[in-house]
Structures are given as structure tokens and as C-alpha cells.
Design a protein that fits this description.
heterodimer; A: 160 residues; alpha+beta; 3-stranded antiparallel sheet; two-stranded antiparallel sheet; 7 strands; 12% helix; 21% strand; B: 630 residues; alpha/beta; 7-stranded mixed sheet; 4-stranded antiparallel sheet; 17 helices; 37% helix; globular; binds flavin-adenine dinucleotide; binds iron/sulfur cluster; 4 iron, 4 sulfur cluster binding (chain A); 4Fe4S_Fe_S_CS (chain A); iron-sulfur (chain A); metal ion binding (chain A)
């Protein structure tokens, strides 16, 4: 839901501006603080909220259907590989804390550098296989599925 | 205008839009083209862009061949029945036979995939879906793409594809502008893989005012994949196949895990089962082949999603709404309750915000469901997009012109939402299609097909003028009136978007008319679209951000026009529950068991429509599941 920025916590670092997929977090030129320039194009995706180093951004439910008085806060920690949420209902009856992992590996350490892996052979190029295949499909000795291998053929009776 | 022109030359593979399709393309391109120059041009920041920006809680397309769960043809059968027969089975089979390798790569890169402790396999939400802790899904795949690309240009809104001037109908790159610096960017490239995503916000959304951004598909999904390809003269298919989602009311939180994993179900306002009651009448409309609850019950053949929507829409119209999701039973189990909440936090936080704001605790109250406004996209449960070539070893001749996922414009490839006729690819399938397109693009270059490309300065300058025109229009006319947003000489992008959405809603079957249209309405709508098109020449932007919105609007407009044309062309109601043609309320297999294909002439703007053959590669009967390897 639309974001807003607490004036006293924001230092104008621009992390939210850098990340917002909708290009709506901007820095106010006079105040040098961030603000949401177009709330009706905000998807409440929380990307900016998660990115703000000072936890200066919060979200208030859309005015057309969400009453005031609730809160959903988040802390995403790449180092620990976790994300923590706290949800408070407006009637004060529910206050939940939830935690989930965001990765199983040290951040960014396990993505391969394909410029450095052995170049694909001609045979591989001429086949239908992609990088890491067929191994990564079946994880056994089986090859790639073809129509033939799966006992299929073009069904008769094509209709126009 | 004093913006710089920045030219990036000698690109082999330009990836336009790095969502799940684009990241897959950039990643794989490096393997097949280790010496090639690979460049990404992305409207946002690839670390959080596209439909997966928030994350996902499930990967919706995974065969599990490794665990002996499914084979690719099983998935083809499923997608085919869900889409009332209208799919490209060659593309679906091809995607499905590769998709597991994408998922296994994701796991290796650190994506937490939940496990079924007993079986050792991935934890399934349903037959095709596996559950993940996917808050960081997008940053994880973006890391892989970043490592593969020579350069990543973030914050570039690509507005047009460049066309080769030495050979007709061949792509030569793309142009756009940087939404931070305002600079004009020219990418000269031998091939382009278009992954610029599907379209939200082309139909009037149910939310209004401040809430207008609360749509199901991301508000930044501007239909650019379609806009760019249509403008370049690529043939499109199945653009009439818009999707309407049944989701939690207002928040649009996902229902998949609720139905499939948490085993929730729906009922009407009075606690009654309503669905089956609508099926006998509906069966007369669509035929037994597509709706046979008895067979479905016996064989687990799914009832098509659109038909289930039809039941919801009909029940609400009959005055027995709202439809409720029965969560109160499942949520008594604290573990399932936690999963229910995580499901939103991982992919649609707004739903959690909404329930907290309205004091709806699904443990004690069954929340409301609703049907959304329609969307146009090609990778979820719909198949809109470009008419692309399939793979050599699977495709019949009409579906094959040499390079997998290449559109009818040479050197231009599509992946994800951009590729038509491949519904049910979802995130993993979109990534897979990007990989397939990248391999084919490398081959296209290596075969010498991109030799001798020429782009003149005239073309580059013409596009530049066109791109900045909305800023120009603003500066020329802004002082003619005192101030405010009303000017007799221009409209701003928001005003244009409002008009487009109203038009689409009222004439092309939006929620406001209960998804109903007919040839008369469509023709009036098209006439109004034509005039809106003229007014869009006069759209004005007061700054670079508004310029971004202006071009998003233009792409949405092209997408919408294509939806209109396709809807008018298919004279039947193929997908009741997604839309109805009141003048042709029945499904008509005799005349319309075909794929629809359109082309917009880039010079005249005129549409040509044709029927393309629908080939079935996969028989109806499902074999016993393959034996487990583990
Ligand atoms: C609410 C929701 C729930 C979903 N749930 C699931 C799920 O549970 N499981 C699952 O597997 N799938 C799910 N999906 C589907 C999945 O997200 C999509 O199938 C997939 O992301 C489509 O990939 P894509 O690359 O075609 O588009 P996107 O991922 O949307 O990428 C498009 C990219 O193009 C960029 N772009 C757009 N216009 C331009 C332009 N003019 N110039 C440059 N760049 C541009 C965008 O910024 C974006 O990065 C869900 C989608 C949504 C919205
Ligand atoms: S990220 Fe936070 S501190 Fe930085 S500009 Fe945005 S709101 Fe301010
Ligand atoms: S919640 Fe998402 S869309 Fe809204 S301002 Fe933040 S990053 Fe942008």
C-alpha cells in the first residue's frame, strides 16, 4: 500500500530511489528527504521499505479501502539470510512475528560465472540441451525428453 | 532538448527487460556466446524489477522428473485443458522438458526450496507447484544475470526497437531514455531478446483513487513487450485471451497455496457450495469435451480456471455474493496458519496489510473473494504474446522457422510474457524460455544471419525526436493557461491512462460490464481507440518521470488495440469467465478450433487477422506416472 517517509529518520541516501520498480520514490529537492511522488502507482511491494538503511519508510493501507491504525513492518538481513515481519491488527487483538529464510548460501556466492566454464561442444550446440543439461533435469542418466522418447507423435485431425 | 545521446555499439545480444525471462536470457547467453557482447536494458533496477519484484512463495511450474513425478506431456495436457484447447503444444512441451533444470539451478544459487521430508522431493503445493521461501527470488536470479552480462543499464525505458535498413523485417537493436539522467540511449545489436513483460492497468481496476496501484499484476507491467513487438510488425497470437483472477478481495492475495496446500474451499454468502450448480448450463455453452465434472472427478482432470470464474460471476450476479474462502478450518492448525501468512508476506504484502487494517483474522472469519479486472500476459494462466518459432525436433512446419522463440521479425526473440501460446510457464518457465531464446540467438548470429545490419543516423534521430516530443508539447503549451492539469492542447499520461481504462472496461469486456462485449461494442470501442491514438500524439510530460509514464501509456495503448482486434476476430465465447461475446455466446469448435494471429502494419497501423492451425502433439490419455528414480 502507499509508502510514506518519516522525515526525522530519512537522511536522503537514495537507496529507495535506486530500488523502486515503479520509479516513484524521489528526493524532495527542498527538504532533501525521500517521498512517494505517485501513491496510486505503488504496489506496496515493500522493496523500498526493505532497502532503507534507517527504517524510515512505512506503509499505510490504501485510503479507498483500508482503515487506519494497523502496521506491517519488516527487517531484511542479507548477512543472516533472513527476513523478519511484524504484523499488528488495528483492533490490537493480533500481533504476529514471523521469520523466514531468504537464501541458503552466502549472498551471491553460488551463482556461476559462465564465461569461465568449459565451452559447449559442437554436439551440445547441435542438440536441444541447455547449460547444465541433461544432468540438471533428471539428476540421473536419462537424457532430454523428445517426442519420440516419450512415445508421442503429432496427433491426427488437425483442425483449422 | 539538451540530453546527451549515448550509443552502445556492437552488441550481439540485447536483452530488453530483465524480469524472469530476461534474466534467464542474459544468463544462458553467456554460456553459448562466451565471446559475445551481452547487454541488458531494464526500465527499473534488475535486482527488484518485473512481476517477481516482491518475491514469490511458490514456483508454479516444476515437473519433478527427477523424483518421478511428472513428464512434460502431462503438463501440456494440463495447460491445454485449462486454456480450452488453445495452446502451442510444441512450445509448452519444450518449456516443460527444460524447466526442471532451471529450478535445480535456482536451488544451487541459494533459493530456499521447501522439502517434503518423507519423500525427499520438493514440497508440493499442487501437482505443478512447489513451495519456496522466495522473498529474494528476484535478487538471486538477477545476480546470475549480472554475472553473465557485459553491461547492465538500469533505469532505461526502451521505447522502440531499431530496424535494419539493409534487410526488411530484421531487428537491429533498440532505443530508449534514462529516467534519471534523461539521456537518449541507442543500443545497436545483432539480436534482441524481448522480455519486457505483460500488461496490467489496461482495463479499469476495481480499486480507485490512491488505491489505483492495487492491481493484481504489477502496476509497472506496462505491456511493453507487446508494444515494442507490435510496433515493429511482429505477428501476435491469442491477444484476446485476457485473464481474470479470482483472488482475495481488494488485496489480491494469491489463492493457490490456500486451495492446494491448505485445502481451503469456497462457498457463497449463505455457506453453500455453488460451483456445481452452474456447470450443467455451462456445459451446454462449452461442450462436454471441455467441461465434464464426472470425468474430472474420476481422472483428476482439472476444470478450466475460466469456467470456475464463470461460476463465481454467475453466483454473485444471482445475488448470493460475496463468495468466501473457507479458511476457518485450516487455520486452526498453527502451522498452516503460519504458512497462510507467509504466503502473502513472500509475494503480496498488501494482502497482509489489508487484513491487519480491517481486522480480518482468517482463523475466525472467512475472507471474501472477488474476480479481478482483466490482464494481458503470456506466462501465467494465459497465452497472449508474439507468434514465435518452436524447437526443431518438436514443431510442425507452420510453427517452425529455424530459431527457437524467434518472432516473425528476424533476430527478434521473445520470452516469458512476450512469447504467445505458452501459458502456465510462470516464473520458472519464463526463465527457461529466456534460456532457450538465448541459445537460439547465439546460433542465429553464428549462422551469419545478422550480417550487414545497417542503422542510419536518420532513424536514430527520428526516434529521438519522437521520444522527447511529450516534453516538447508540455513546454510549448504549458503557459497558455494559468496552471493546473487542464489544458486544451494536451492530456497528461494519467488522463490518457484513465481514458484507456474506461474504454477497455466498457467496450472490451472489463469488470464494469460483467466481462461482456459484442461486435457492436467492439467496433465503437475501436473507433474511440483510434481517436485516443491521435490524442496520444499530444500527450504531454512535465518531467522525465512523466515521460516514462507517457511511453508506458503508449505501449499499453498498442497492447489494448491488439486485444480489441483479436476479441473482435474470434467470433465465439471460448473462455466464459474471462470474457463473453454476447453475440456469440457459445464455444464453436467447428470454426474456431484455431489459434488467432494478427499483424499490425508498422507503416499504416492497419491490422491483418488470420487463423493458424492448432496442432495437438499430445494424446488425451494420460499414461501411468513414470516410475520413481528414488
Ligand atoms: C501477483 C503475482 C503472482 C504470481 N505468482 C506466481 C507464483 O506463485 N509462481 C510463479 O512461478 N509465478 C508466479 N507469477 C508469474 C510470474 O511472476 C511471471 O510469469 C513472470 O515473472 C513473467 O516473466 P517476464 O520476464 O515475462 O516478465 P517480468 O518478470 O514482469 O519482467 C519484465 C521486465 O521488463 C522490464 N520492462 C518493462 N517495460 C520495459 C521497457 N519499456 N524497457 C525496459 N524494460 C522494461 C520490467 O521492469 C521487468 O523487469 C506471479 C505473478 C504475479 C504478478
Ligand atoms: S532509503 Fe530511507 S534514508 Fe535513504 S532516502 Fe530512502 S527513505 Fe531516506
Ligand atoms: S512499496 Fe514498492 S512500489 Fe511502492 S514505493 Fe516502495 S518500492 Fe515503490
Amino acid at each position: 500500500m502507499p509508502t510514506f517517509v518519516y522525515m526525522t529518520r530519512c537522511d536522503g541516501c537514495g537507496e529507495c530511489v535506486d530500488i523502486c520498480p515503479s520509479d516513484i520514490m524521489h528526493i524532495d529537492k527542498t527538504l532533501r528527504r525521500a517521498y512517494n511522488i505517485e501513491p496510486n502507482m505503488c504496489w506496496e511491494c515493500y522493496s523500498c521499505v526493505k532497502a532503507c538503511p534507517h527504517h524510515a519508510i512505512d506503509v499505510r493501507g490504501y485510503a479507498d479501502f483500508a482503515p487506519l491504525g494497523h502496521s506491517v513492518r519488516v527487517i531484511r538481513d542479507e548477512e543472516k539470510g533472513t527476513i523478519a515481519w511484524r504484523i499488528k491488527f488495528r483492533n490490537g487483538k493480533k500481533d504476529m512475528e514471523l521469520l523466514a529464510p531468504i537464501t541458503t548460501k552466502p549472498w551471491g556466492s553460488a551463482t556461476p560465472d559462465l564465461a569461465k566454464v568449459p565451452a559447449p561442444s559442437k554436439e551440445m550446440r547441435d542438440s536441444q540441451l541447455l547449460f547444465n543439461e541433461p544432468k540438471y533435469i533428471r539428476m540421473d542418466d536419462g537424457g532430454l525428453h523428445t517426442l519420440q522418447s516419450n512415445g508421442l507423435e503429432i496427433k491426427k485431425g488437425v483442425q483449422y | 532538448m539538451s540530453y546527451q545521446t549515448i550509443i552502445e555499439d556492437d552488441i550481439d545480444i540485447l536483452v530488453v527487460g530483465a524480469g524472469l525471462g530476461g534474466t534467464g536470457a542474459a544468463f544462458e547467453a553467456r554460456y553459448w556466446g562466451q565471446d559475445k557482447k551481452i547487454v541488458i536494458a531494464e526500465k527499473a533496477n534488475i535486482m527488484r524489477s518485473g512481476a517477481v519484484a516482491q518475491g514469490l512463495y511458490a514456483i508454479n511450474c516444476y515437473m519433478g522428473t527427477r523424483f518421478g513425478e511428472n513428464n512434460p506431456e502431462d503438463h501440456v495436457r494440463y495447460a491445454r485443458i485449462d486454456l480450452m484447447g488453445m495452446v502451442r503444444e510444441d512450445l509448452l512441451f519444450d518449456m516443460a522438458r527444460h524447466v526442471d533444470s532451471a529450478v535445480h539451478n535456482f536451488e544451487e544459487w541459494g533459493l530456499p526450496i521447501m522439502r517434503n521430508e518423507k519423500k525427499g522431493s520438493f514440497l508440493r503445493e499442487g501437482r505443478w507447484q512447489i513451495m519456496i521461501h522466495g522473498e529474494s527470488y528476484k535478487p538471486i536470479v538477477a545476480e546470475a544475470a549480472k554475472k553473465s552480462a557485459d553491461k547492465v543499464f538500469n533505469r532505461i525505458c526502451v521505447t522502440h526497437l531499431l530496424m535494419d535498413e539493409s534487410k526488411e523485417n530484421r531487428v537491429a537493436g533498440a532505443v530508449g531514455f534514462n529516467v534519471r539522467t534523461g539521456n537518449y540511449h541507442v543500443f545497436k545489436s545483432k539480436t534482441v531478446i524481448c522480455g519486457a513483460g505483460g500488461a496490467s492497468n489496461i482495463f479499469k481496476p476495481r480499486s480507485v483513487g490512491e488505491g489505483a496501484g492495487r492491481v493484481w499484476y504489477a502496476p509497472w507491467s506496462s505491456g511493453s513487450a507487446y508494444g515494442l513487438m507490435i510496433q515493429a510488425g511482429a505477428k501476435m497470437t491469442q491477444m484476446e485471451n485476457r485473464i481474470v483472477l479470482a483472488r482475495f478481495k481488494d488485496g489480491y492475495g494469491p489463492v493457490g497455496a490456500y486451495f492446494l496446500h491448505l485445502k481451503t474451499y469456497t462457498q457463497n454468502a449463505y455457506g453453500e457450495e455453488y460451483e456445481s450448480k452452474w456447470f450443467p448450463e455451462l456445459q451446454k455453452m462449452v461442450g462436454k469435451e471441455y467441461l465434464d465434472p464426472e470425468v474430472s472427478h474420476r481422472t483428476h482432470r482439472p476444470i478450466p480456471t475460466c469456467l470456475r470464474n464463470h461460476a463465481i460471476i454467475s453466483e454473485v450476479n444471482a445475488g448470493r455474493g460475496p463468495i468466501h474462502m473457507v479458511t476457518m478450518e485450516a487455520f486452526q492448525d498453527p502451522h498452516l496458519e503460519e504458512i497462510g501468512w507467509h504466503n502473502f508476506l513472500g509475494m503480496t504484502v498488501g494482502q497482509a496489510v489489508l487484513w491487519a487494517a480491517t481486522d480480518v483474522d482468517p482463523k475466525y472469519e472467512n475472507p471474501e473473494l472477488t474476480t479481478s479486472e482483466p490482464y494481458v500476459m503470456g506466462s501465467h494462466a494465459t497465452g497472449c504474446g508474439a507468434w514465435v518459432s518452436g524447437p526443431e525436433d518438436v514443431s510442425p512446419p507452420e510453427y517452425f522457422w529455424g530459431y527457437n522463440r524467434m518472432t516473425t521479425v528476424e533476430g527478434l526473440f521473445g520470452a516469458g510474457d512476450a512469447a504467445g501460446g505458452t501459458p502456465h510457464a510462470f516464473s520458472s518457465g519464463s526463465f527457461t524460455e529466456g534460456r532457450l531464446a538465448a541459445k537460439a540467438a547465439c546460433k542465429y548470429i553464428d549462422d551469419g544471419k545478422a550480417a550487414g545490419i545497417r542503422v542510419s543516423d536518420a532513424q536514430i534521430n527520428r526516434r529521438k525526436e519522437e521520444i522527447y516530443k511529450p516534453l516538447e508539447t508540455y513546454s510549448v503549451y504549458k503557459n497558455e493557461v494559468v496552471a493546473g492539469s487542464v489544458n486544451p492542447n494536451f492530456i497528461n499520461p494519467r488522463q490518457g491512462l484513465d481514458r484507456l481504462q474506461k474504454l477497455m472496461d466498457e467496450y472490451c469486456g472489463g469488470f464494469g460490464v460483467n466481462y461482456m462485449t459484442n461486435d457492436k461494442l467492439l467496433n465503437i470501442g475501436l473507433k474511440k481507440m483510434f481517436i485516443l491514438g491521435q490524442d496520444l500524439e499530444k500527450v504531454a510530460a512535465s518531467d522525465i518521470h512523466e515521460l516514462l509514464r507517457a511511453w508506458e501509456l503508449k505501449h499499453r495503448f498498442l497492447t489494448s488495440e491488439s486485444v480489441f482486434q483479436h476479441t473482435l476476430f474470434r467470433k465465439e465465447t471460448r473462455w466464459p469467465g474471462y470474457y463473453y461475446r454476447g453475440d456469440a455466446m457459445k464455444l464453436d469448435d467447428e470454426n474456431w478450433h484455431v489459434l488467432t494471429v494478427s499483424r499490425r502494419d508498422p507503416k499504416t497501423g492497419e491490422y491483418t487477422m488470420e487463423k493458424a492451425p492448432l496442432y495437438h502433439l499430445v494424446g488425451d490419455v494420460e499414461k501411468a506416472p513414470p516410475e520413481s528414480h528414488h
